């Protein structure tokens, strides 16, 4: 493999094609598993023909990604899109199995930022070096996205789009609760405000990664961490048994015991927690506060256009910074998104890195935002006319601010074990006790990392 000496390549420019995008989610998980059962082989280079680069993607915005792949293909190679499962953990499992087997057909891959350290430390990602690293991670990349793109001093992935959570709410509910949403609000304020006015607080409380996202950001908002010194691997310092951990547990208990808790709290996810945010025939109540990702705006606008919400419902939609754990302290919103990596065992790493720079360039990021609500990792794209025409400027400013101020989940090669250990002790939300749960989870996590207990 070439890692230090290569020519500088100029990426072809992606030009988005007109036409609305519809996210095709139904059946994608099944299709992805069928695709994953067969080994796809890049072809054409040995015989002197055109090379096919396989790009494994998470099934979000598939129509837009297909166009990006087509427009970033060249006379030398074509980019073939292959679907991964819907679930982030299953995506990681499928890619890890391929790369552990030194699969040469995995040329490009979409990675959730939480899996980058694991893949990089295992030697599965081809680093971007010299001029390629500056193209991949220039000054235009937002701080929150850049923080998850490097490992051991090397740029190992290219940020494609970034995700963050904000506080979505029904303006009429906030007004009834007497909250000034132009100022920072706390978790306690929105829980009390919703409970006192017949509303709900929507969160992701199922036993999955979304629950850890909520826990981690509350802990970081109180000045703490789940673990630190993650470069030490299994010897990372476990910090969850702390005042910050107890602050997070207090909020979970308050919500679980409150009238503001959704009935499905213990199994709620990004989609189900949106129920009742805005007015529909099925949910005519006072509405909710909801912490959720950037997709919500387009989702709710489309829902009104499709008749799933009552006419004019989105006029009552408000947005604000993610709630503070501790009054007077800045919140640390969650961050997610997608990074594009190049497989270390690909037969065409030079072409694949050229392709990775193209599918993550500003034009591609603009198309993903406008067509699918997946927001840019490059700051300049937020100022493009296409985005300011498609989204309210104050919402774009909030997304950009939240990505820059985000609190990333632990950057550790053992993140999968860390996340699963936290889920095991903190779920269901109704079982969380401030005086017990952080301590119990610290002990369990310590044993898991030491190999003394199994998940």
Automatic annotation (TrEMBL):
Residues 1-21 are annotated as: Disordered. The keyword Oxidoreductase does not apply. Keywords: Signal, Transport. Coiled coil: none annotated. InterPro entries: Bact_solute-bd_prot1, SBP. The keyword Cytoplasm does not apply. It comes from the Bacteria. Residues 1-42 form the signal peptide. Residues 7-16 have a biased composition (Basic residues). Belongs to the bacterial solute-binding protein 1 family. This is Extracellular solute-binding protein. It comes from Nocardioides jishulii.
């Amino acid at each position: 493999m070439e890692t230090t000496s290569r020519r500088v390549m100029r990426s072809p420019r992606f030009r988005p094609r007109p036409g609305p995008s519809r996210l095709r989610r139904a059946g994608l998980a099944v299709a992805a598993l069928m695709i994953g059962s067969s080994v796809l082989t890049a072809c054409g280079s040995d015989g002197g023909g055109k090379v096919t680069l396989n790009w494994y993607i998470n099934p979000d915005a598939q129509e837009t990604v297909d166009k990006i792949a087509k427009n970033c293909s060249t006379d030398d190679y074509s980019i073939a899109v292959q679907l991964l499962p819907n679930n982030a953990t299953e995506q990681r499992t499928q890619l890890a199995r391929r790369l552990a087997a030194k699969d040469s057909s995995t040329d490009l891959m979409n990675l959730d930022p939480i899996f980058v350290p694991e893949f990089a430390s295992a030697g599965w990602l081809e680093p971007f070096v010299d001029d390629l690293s500056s193209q991949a991670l220039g000054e235009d990349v937002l701080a929150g996205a850049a923080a998850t793109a490097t490992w051991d001093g090397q740029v190992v992935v290219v940020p494609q789009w970034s995700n963050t959570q904000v506080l979505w709410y029904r303006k009429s509910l906030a007004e009834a609760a007497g909250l000034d949403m132009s100022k920072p609000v706390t978790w306690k304020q929105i829980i009390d405000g919703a409970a006192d006015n017949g509303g709900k607080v929507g969160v992701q409380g199922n036993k999955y990664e979304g629950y850890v996202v909520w826990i981690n950001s509350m802990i970081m908002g109180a000045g703490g961490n789940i673990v630190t010194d993650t470069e030490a691997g299994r010897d990372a310092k476990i910090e969850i048994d702390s005042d910050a951990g107890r602050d997070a547990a207090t909020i979970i208990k308050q919500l679980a015991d409150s009238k503001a808790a959704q009935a499905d709290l213990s199994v709620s996810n990004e989609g189900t927690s949106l129920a009742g945010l805005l007015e529909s025939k099925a949910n005519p109540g006072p509405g909710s506060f909801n912490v959720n990702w950037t997709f919500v705006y387009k989702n709710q606008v489309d829902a009104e256009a499709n008749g799933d919400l009552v006419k004019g419902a989105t006029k009552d939609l408000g947005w604000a910074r993610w709630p503070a754990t501790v009054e007077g302290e800045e919140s640390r919103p969650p961050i997610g998104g997608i990074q594009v990596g190049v497989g270390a065992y690909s037969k065409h790493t030079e072409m694949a890195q050229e392709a990775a720079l193209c599918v993550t360039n500003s034009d591609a990021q603009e198309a993903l935002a406008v067509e699918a609500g997946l927001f840019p990792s490059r700051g300049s794209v937020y100022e493009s006319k296409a985005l300011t025409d498609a989204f309210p400027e104050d919402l774009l400013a909030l997304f950009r601010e939240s990505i820059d101020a985000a609190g990333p989940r632990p950057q550790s090669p053992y993140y999968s074990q860390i996340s699963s250990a936290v889920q095991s002790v903190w779920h269901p939300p109704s079982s969380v006790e401030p005086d017990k749960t952080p301590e119990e989870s610290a002990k369990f996590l310590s044993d898991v990392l030491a190999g003394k207990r199994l998940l």
